Amino acid sequence: MEKQKVHYSELGLVNTKQMFSKAMAGKYAIPAYNFNNLEQLQAIVTACVETDSPVIIQVSKGARSYANETMLRYMAMGAVQMAREAGSKIPICLHLDHGDSFELCKSCIDSGFSSVMIDGSHLPFDENVALTKKVVEYARQHDVTVEGELGVLAGIEDEVSAEHSTYTKPEEVEDFVKKTGVDSLAISIGTSHGAYKFKLKPGESVPPLRFDILDECEKRIPGFPIVLHGASSVLPEYVELINSYGGKMDGAVGVPEDQLRKAAASAVCKINIDSDGRLAVTAKIREYFAKDPKEFDPRKYLGEARKELINLIKHKNQTVLGSAGNA
Ligand code: G3H
Ligand code: 13P
Ligand code: ZN
Asked: Which of 37, 56, 119, 157 best tests ligand 1's pocket when mutated (most atoms within 8 Å of CB)?
């Protein structure tokens, strides 16, 4: 059977345009939470409805092959429906995280995504421009918004892995935005993907993000939405819980919340969070199994994990990103 083409408006989804202009004016950031399964998506919707926050639900290439693209589209549609039945009007955007080819972005646009990222950050500037522009030209025809990236984050970005980060060069951003026509731009200012963001020696604290680079970028593209990837805080309570119940995550460290609050008040309009959710889920499941080794009903331990994820997302929206109350 051939895959059915669907436009995101039929699913009740929205693109990022209005979300970002409101976030820029209101000095907060839209949360972008990754999901791969039912419990994660239920937690995201529940927490964002309860905090009245706009939300971007995002899917990586890995999530797409884990959960199936068509299944994901219907899950997103279910998420919108679930919010509406709860009496909430929160805007929900379905976004492709770290798209690595035109074909992948096109496939997502055709299957109901309302926003895509084309990550050409590992390519030479001109090739990044050419690839991004091609995606923008296709996306425009469907009113889908596009995120591009300049500068490389350390850590694993799906199949692309970089050992060291390369900060964004502010002198390139204006040219990139003009030539490609992107709607938002991810930049590299010291964050990285995963749970081990900084290698700290005993007694050392986390180095501050490069707000000077962020400022320089803002000056060159005033009022333009900037995106921060690798923005998990790797909350110590989860790392401790994981380690105390048999896990081995020594040295896991993330971006302090006060730095993310500062970023959210700037032109940073979208903040990506995945690892923090993974840690919360893993911590609660490890704890559950250790305390109740006889239990074998997944609803019990996944239910506990989901509850924790709801608390975490509410905290992010209310205290870190400032998106709560802004739907
Ligand atoms: O940027 C990476 C995201 O955390 C997605 O991770 O490729 O393992 O699904 P993933
Ligand atoms: P974290 O690994 O810090 O959660 O970053 C997620 C991300 O950037 C997804 O694109
Ligand atoms: Zn990312």
From this structure: 157
